[in-house]
Amino acid sequence: MDEISVKNLEVFCHHGVYKEENVLGQKFLVDIISKVDTREAGKTDELALSVSYGDICRCVKKEMTKQNDKLLERVAERLAECILLQFPQINEVEIEVKKPWAPVLMHMDYASVKIKRSWHKVYIGVGSNLGEREEYMKLAKERVSGLPKTRNFKSAAIIETEPCGYTEQGKFLNTVYYIETLYTPEEFLDKLHQIENEANRKREIHWGPRTLDLDILLYDNLITEDEELTLPHPEMTKRLFVLEPLCMLYPRGIHPLEQRRYTDILEDLKGKEQ
After folding, report:
1. Which terminus has fewer CB within 10 Å in the chain: N or C?
2. How far, in Å, are 2, 9, 49, 93, 117 from residue 35 at the CA level?
């Protein structure tokens, strides 16, 4: 990916732990590296097809001077989020906030914090088979698509399916969502749990009936396993009700572990269940 860089942008503001820093203020230097596809702008010489580094600088100055923070970590986080939300062409940004006059009573060039943030692609499995199923599916779509720090929401068609595992329950409505987010996997999972709680989700029977079920299926191509979250979702390749709507949104997708297209996995699973 191409880069648009700004080095040592100087901004005078009032961040710091000490009261004197908040009152007197000091100089900060900021490096910004934005990942942007500049191919079309390079071919056509049209600024509209790229991102103006002047606009990036003005965005940084406005964000740094609108409030005082104690930590450079907080300043850097706000800058990264501001840039990614304001400039949709930028998929990833690296920020370094430098503090040349850091109050440490020793000689140094500067203290700094450097972070890298980006948009992440997430696929979510959605299901409901208890109570007003259609209303719970509508609630899920409204809440997930309306989450802050997200963009480009898409939904597959809703399908009706037989229950799996615990079969003494009603039929499910299922679908899959796609969304891009700035949240980490853990942060995003917490947001989904909040939506489930709003739908009065109860976890009483494993694979049992539920008003609303929201599962992270894929987060980029991340492979991870812990007590709270396993990615890719360990059951997704065994479930027609997941693979069918997933293939509507991601027909050429490849499973990070199995290294097979989801369409091929779906066809194999259909053959086994015939």
Report:
1. C
2. 6, 18, 14, 6, 10
Rounded to whole angstroms, the Cα distance separating 120 from 214 reads 18
CA-to-CA dists, residue 37 to 54, 79, 237, angstroms: 17, 21, 33
Domain chopping of the chain, boundaries: 3-118, 120-273
If you search the block for the tokens 């910004």, which residue do you land on?
Answer: 32
- pLDDT tens-digit profile, the chain (274 residues): 899 999 999 999 999 999 999 999 999 999 999 999 999 999 999 999 999 999 999 999 999 999 999 999 999 999 999 999 999 999 999 999 999 999 998 999 999 999 999 999 999 999 998 889 999 999 999 999 999 999 999 999 999 988 876 555 678 999 999 999 999 999 999 999 999 999 987 665 555 578 999 999 999 999 999 888 999 999 999 999 999 999 999 999 999 999 999 999 999 998 877 6
CATH of 120-273, one of 3.40.1190.10, 3.30.360.10, 3.20.20.370, 3.30.70.560: 3.30.70.560
The residues that bridge with 150 in the sheet, in sequence order, are: 181
Choose, from 27, 66, 99, 270, the residue flagged as catalytic.
99
Fold of 3-118: GTP Cyclohydrolase I, domain 2 (3.30.1130)
Collapsing DSSP to helix, strand or coil, 246 comes out as helix
Residue reference for tokens 């948009």 = 119
